[in-house]
Design a protein that fits this description.
With 165 residues, the protein is α+β, with helices and mostly antiparallel strands. The chain contains 4 helices and 10 strands, in the order αβββββαβββαββα.
């Protein structure tokens, strides 16, 4: 019986630790960025959207990886802000920060800056939907999140808890 209780405690704790598995990478300019593996927020036969939180420990960003994505020439034209709706029934506008192509241009990632005044809302309410202006490919792409809607708040809470320590 003790072994069984110990086993369940281990499984529970390892699951909690795995949720806060922060990765890092050195940028071309030498700065360090911290991030989580992207979570699938939306997926159909024609399009999908992965989202994760990225930080330089000073600013927090929502990173989007839409599929399909435009070629680099067209994708670099994406400059509009991200409109995201949270479960608190409010709409938030995140400023476009950067559009990046990674892994030999096989992944496109668009970074949007979370305003400091909105950090509390993003760390307490799940994401419901988002609109992205995919210039060069179509007008506005809308996503009503069906999958892992709590990823943004869980990842942000991990970063905030880590920063407190």
């Amino acid at each position: 019986m003790k072994f069984l209780i110990l086993f369940f405690c281990f499984v529970y704790n390892s699951k909690g630790i795995a949720q806060c598995e922060i990765k890092n990478r050195v940028q071309a300019d030498g700065s360090m960025m911290y991030y989580f593996e992207p979570a699938v927020f939306y997926s159909t036969k024609s399009k999908s959207l992965k989202i994760n939180i990225v930080t330089d420990k000073e600013h927090y960003f929502v990173a989007l990886q839409p599929t399909p994505f435009p070629e680099k020439k067209e994708g670099k034209k994406i400059k509009d802000d991200l409109v995201i709706h949270l479960a608190d029934n409010n709409t938030y506008k995140l400023a476009h920060y950067d559009t990046q192509y990674q892994r030999n241009d096989s992944i496109m990632q668009v970074l949007y800056l979370i305003d400091v005044k909105d950090i509390d809302a993003f760390s307490n309410y799940e994401a419901v939907s988002a609109e992205i202006n995919m210039q060069g490919t179509e007008f506005v792409r809308s996503y009503n999140f069906k999958l892992y809607k709590k990823a943004i708040l869980e990842q942000l809470k991990c970063f905030l808890k880590k920063d407190e320590n």
